[in-house]
Write a structure and sequence with these properties.
The protein has 262 residues and is mainly alpha-helical. The protein is built from nine helices and no strands. Helix 5 packs parallel to helix 8.
């Protein structure tokens, strides 16, 4: 017996446009990632035109280095956007042949662990590292190695932490959706579901807050010497305390709302 035509049509749409799959479950982070990805997708036909044009003019003996740079810029920006898009649409390539036969609950448990304990720590770490990487490139005014190339390479590098932050938002939204299969996704449950990432994010927040406070209260201190202050040896524990405070506050509010509804 052939399958339901409506179900078959839905499967075909999900293949041709992964963003349509489970669209009714998408959160604002999912919609942001899909909308941004749909716009950036137009870079691919532009990239194809740029490649063909460069091949033609190179054969004609009029090679343009800036066009070579533009191809790498577009390809890098689009591919990194696709990383976050695949997280939202669950369209990345899976190598686990067992996953497809698992129950929805078991799949959700695997996704929560993979997103919260493996992927999110990496995304937060890379966003933090690339922020400093982009800032250094901007300060140096980094450009192309070619005299007639694109000489504002720092613009591309400044987009890297933004795109990783966008992928991080997509991962948090996916974590929320999978957690909702297991339980009601409250703030404290989300924090625990992404415990390593939550702790690291709290530590980074504490670090930059202390850095800013030190710079304001001690304007004469050398910026390079700020992080050598003794207080910065305890940012991990400050971050842990901050994370525990968020968990306790969220749990307390949730308990009060439950008591009020009952």
């Amino acid at each position: 017996m052939p399958g339901n035509p409506i179900e078959i049509k839905a499967d075909v749409i999900a293949i041709t446009d992964p963003s349509e799959k489970d669209r009714d479950q998408h959160l604002w982070g999912d919609r942001l990632m899909v909308g941004f990805g749909n716009i950036v997708a137009w870079l691919f036909p532009i990239l194809m035109i740029a490649i063909v044009t460069q091949v033609i003019i190179r054969k004609a003996g009029a090679n343009q280095a800036w066009l070579d740079d533009a191809q790498w810029w577009m390809y890098g920006f689009a591919m990194l956007t696709g990383f976050g898009y695949a997280i939202t649409t669950n369209s990345h390539v899976r190598v686990d042949i067992l996953h497809q036969s698992f129950s929805p609950t078991k799949k959700a448990k695997i996704e929560v662990f993979a997103l919260g304990w493996l992927l999110l720590p990496f995304l937060i770490m890379m966003t933090d590292i690339l922020f400093h990487y982009a800032y250094s490139s901007w300060v140096a005014g980094e450009g192309s190695d070619s005299p007639n190339g694109l000489h504002m390479l720092y613009l591309l590098k400044m987009s890297l932490p933004v795109l990783f932050a966008l992928a991080m938002i997509a991962a948090v939204a996916a974590l929320n959706r999978n957690l909702s299969t297991l339980t009601t996704p409250t703030v404290w449950k989300m924090v625990l579901a992404a415990l390593p990432a939550s702790w690291f994010a709290a530590e980074r927040f504490s670090h930059y807050a202390l850095y800013g406070f030190t710079r304001i209260t001690q304007p004469d201190i050398n910026p390079r010497a700020v992080t050598r202050q003794d207080i910065f040896d305890y940012t991990s524990w400050i971050g842990l305390a901050l994370m525990v405070a968020v968990i306790a506050f969220s749990f307390f509010l949730g308990s009060r709302r439950s008591s009020g509804q009952s």
